[in-house]
Amino acid sequence: MEKIKVASLFCGCGGMDLGVLGGFTFLGKEYPKNPFEIVYAVDFDEYCTKIYNENFEHKCIVKDVRDIKTNELPEFDMLIGGFPCQSFSISAQNPPRLGFKDERGMLFFEMVKILKERQPRFFIAENVKGILSANEGKAFPMIIKEFRDAGYHVMHKLLNASDYGVPQKRERVIIMGFLKEEDSRMFKFPSKIKREDRKVLGDVVLQKENNNESLFFSEKAVAGMMAVRDKMNKGRAQNLEEPCNTVSAHLAKVSLNSTDPVLIINGRFRRFSTREAARIQSFPDTFRLESVSQGRQYRAIGNAVPPVMMWHIIKALQKIFVVRQLDFLSTLEQYPENIIVNSSDENNVYMENLKYDKSKNVLISYVKSDNMEQYLDKSAKIYYTGKRFPSTVALNKLYYFMPYLKGKGIRDLYLIKIARVGTRKEGQADNDPTDFRLVFEIEYIDKLFDDFQPIKLEIWRTFTDTNMTDIFSKIDN
């Protein structure tokens, strides 16, 4: 499976992106690499960006998303981001619409604008639980409507990170968007992991930090909290046998009259170290933080998406990409001679310059650089597929073939005279009689376009199986 290209907005220090990519270890458990790659990452915070760029091969740029020119973005299949939500409002209009109280509220619309203009196959948006009740519950339906108006089939769910192996009770709303209805029908949010595999605060607290006096609160701070304890639900000491309460960007300034979680060690209150906070968020110990000040580390960590929770979401998303591979031997048994035999119909194929049956299926398939010459001079007579060919291609309906030339696109139309199961080097001395492939015997007809046209291939992003009408609609769009 070729990698899914991802553009990341509001990426912060990279929690969401790390979960998308995978390839890390947390508390002894490996979270394998996913077939995704980040091709664009952006955040306005230069300090978060500095942490990000210390940890990823691809680099994040410091930029206001409002300054992004969508036509200059690289090609991408998925857009991700946790947009700011503090400033949404519903204006007093009839009908009501989504508005904003300050500039942060505008950033959501930048995400929607990119979706409208670039139409990636998927998007994932993340936000706090409070977004569901914002503006007396009126804001969230408006947000969903904006995503749907951008052309997407949208679903959402409130997930608790502690259900997925993160030692933290962190509830977040995950919004999934799918350009294709069939993708949305296939997607299911990840199931909770087994209780015995879940993590608690005691799994990530570092005993050495109990000797770090800078983490402990003064007697004055403790006395101030005790004086108002009956009136305020503050200074929350944590149970090591449970997941931690939500850590936030305020940890650098945590005080005992705040809601941020703290520890009691031998009767004394202390806050978490930056490394402990990162562990609570499920960042691996190899994730580097030291490029910025301690205060900036706390802020970046507290605003991040837990990588382990995001990894589980991506694993669930990957299930819609599972395409059963064609069994060549079974196909050979079913079609011992030919799968199809087509003939060029003069009344159908050649009339005036080029006429063709728009209802007939066409296979578009990738041609590597070393095979390109025979397609450029139109001398190609046979196309061999690779060993991996998806079973979802309607082989017995194929009529036309269009080679997709690397770095160019599609242009020329061929007739599929015969489709059959054969071997890659038939009749040659080094032929392997067990190396079965699909073999298409083809005949050049004409070029459909004056120049090569790029088109996004479906099914493992190496083939697409569609009819001629769909091909022209994709080019026009």
Summarize the structure in words.
By secondary structure, the protein is of the alpha/beta class. The chain is built from 15 helices and 23 strands. A seven-stranded mixed sheet has the order 5-4-1-6-9-12-10, sandwiched between helices. Strand 20 and strand 21 form a beta hairpin. Helix 1 packs across helix 10. The longest helix is centred in the N-terminal third of the chain and has 13 residues, at 106-118. It is elongated, with a radius of gyration of 28 Å. The model has no long low-confidence stretch (mean pLDDT 88).
Q: What would you say about this model in short?
A:
The protein is an alpha/beta fold. 24% of the residues lie in helices and 25% in strands.
**Poorly predicted residue ranges:** none
Put simply, the count of helices is 15
Strand order of the largest sheet: 5-4-1-6-9-12-10
Instruction: Give the percentage of residues in beta strands.
Output: 15-25%
Structural class, by secondary structure, is alpha/beta
Mean pLDDT: 88
Radius of gyration: 28 Å
Shape: elongated
Keywords summarizing the entry:
477 residues; alpha/beta; 7-stranded mixed β-sheet; 15 helices; 23 strands
